[in-house]
Design goal:
The chain is α/β, with parallel strands linked by helices. The protein has 17 helices and ten strands. Bound molecules: 2'-deoxyinosine and zinc ion. 2'-deoxyinosine (2ND) binds next to α4, α5 and β2.
């Protein structure tokens, strides 16, 4: 019966997908890193063999710690310092996602990390937006249309969040959907960046916050109740506020209830969470319990390079290891589209004209 049989990889590949949490500097093709490093004279790579390099990223990111996981980004950021490098990486990102069946994606990066080659913050953003536009055009011509948006990230250990928030507002009509903070979570609470969030709220702008990944409930609570985040990056530790009683019935604490009641989207990234130690396995990942409890769950890649993953792979893992059905994949995709930092009418158009017909053709039910 449709919706209950295990979903075959060919079906997952064809399913329309929506991606809210993907890092531009965490999704480079290994071959591109090797080429860009050689052309730029960057000699810091652990190997110049593309296959071995891909493996190196996956192994190094498999560290059990968010801090060590983040160290691997020094190599990708090193080859994203010129206009051409940034545009190429963005173009390839759009093409790779489109080839994987992603129809809508928000890709994020931290402009402040791309100034070493002398570019200004504006030039960095322009270069990335140019690359996304090229990728969109080529993907459409290849018969795999994708709509790309970018989120501008500020690094939580640094002190440029207000400036980056202003940049996000300045570019909001050019393809920037919103703002985010990322980087090590423990020791860097989101309230350090309160002025940036207050500014964004006054500007009617959108933002998400990485919270509840490398640190627990206090981080989620601050992100929502102090900072006013529209969405949570990961948010996986919200399960710490859900107790299972003797009767087996889950009881939600006040914060978990708030997140569910307010339909706050959770940008969940199973493979990344396993690598950083935020979850033990896909089978035990809280995403499936949260889906059952009907939180606003979405499925995401986080860093395709570091996790050796794709949207299809994350979905297939949930199918194979956590029993997700095609109806579940459809539900998560519609959740993501409902939560996108895109005008409401455009969200509806993608849901009604792309996502629903795409899943209907695969036998899924609403
Ligand atoms: O999962 C993550 N948690 C916190 N920070 C992250 C994660 N993935 C990537 N980052 C950081 C490293 C990148 O250089 C930065 C901007 O994309 O965001
Ligand atoms: Zn992330």
């Amino acid at each position: 019966m449709a919706g209950t049989a295990a979903v075959a990889p060919t079906i997952v590949a064809r399913a329309p997908k929506a991606l809210l949490h993907d890092h531009l500097d965490g999704g480079l093709r290994p071959s591109t890193i090797v080429e860009l490093a050689e052309a730029a004279g960057y000699t810091g790579l652990p190997t110049t063999d593309a296959v071995a390099l891909g493996q190196w990223f996956r192994d190094s990111a498999d560290s059990g710690s968010l801090e060590r996981y983040l160290e691997t980004f020094s190599h990708t950021v090193a080859v994203m310092q010129t206009r051409e490098q940034l545009a190429r990486v963005a173009r390839e990102c759009a093409l790779d996602l489109a080839a994987d069946g992603v129809v809508y994606a928000e890709s994020r990066f931290a402009p402040e990390q791309h100034l070493a080659g002398g570019l200004t913050l504006e030039e960095v953003v322009d270069a990335v937006l140019t690359g996304f536009r090229e990728g969109e055009q080529e993907a459409a011509a290849a018969g795999t249309p994708i709509r790309m948006r970018t989120l501008l990230t500020a690094m939580r250990h640094a002190a440029r969040s207000r400036e980056i928030a202003e940049l996000a507002v300045r570019y909001r009509d050019e393809g920037v959907g919103g703002f985010d903070i990322a980087g090590a979570e423990a020791g860097f609470p989101p309230t350090r960046h309160l002025d940036a969030f207050e500014y964004l709220r006054r500007e009617n702008a959108h933002f998400t916050i990485h919270a509840g990944e490398g640190f627990g409930l206090p981080s989620i609570w601050e992100a929502i109740q102090w900072c006013g985040a529209d969405r949570l990056g990961h948010g996986v530790r919200i399960v710490d506020d859900i107790a299972t009683g003797d009767d087996g019935i889950p009881a939600l604490g006040r914060l978990a209830a708030y997140v569910r009641d307010m339909r706050i989207p959770l940008e969940m990234c199973p493979s990344s969470n396993i690598q950083t130690g935020a979850a033990r396995s896909v089978a035990e990942h809280p995403i499936t319990m949260l889906k059952r409890l009907r939180f606003r769950v979405t499925v995401n890649t986080d860093n395709r390079l570091m996790s050796g993953t794709s949207m299809s792979r994350e979905m297939q893992l949930l199918v194979d290891e956590a029993g997700w059905t095609i109806d579940d994949l459809r539900w998560a995709t519609i959740n993501a589209m409902k939560s996108a930092f895109l005008p409401f009418d455009e969200r509806l158009t993608i849901i009604e004209h792309v996502v629903k017909p795409g899943y209907a053709a695969l036998g899924a039910h609403g």
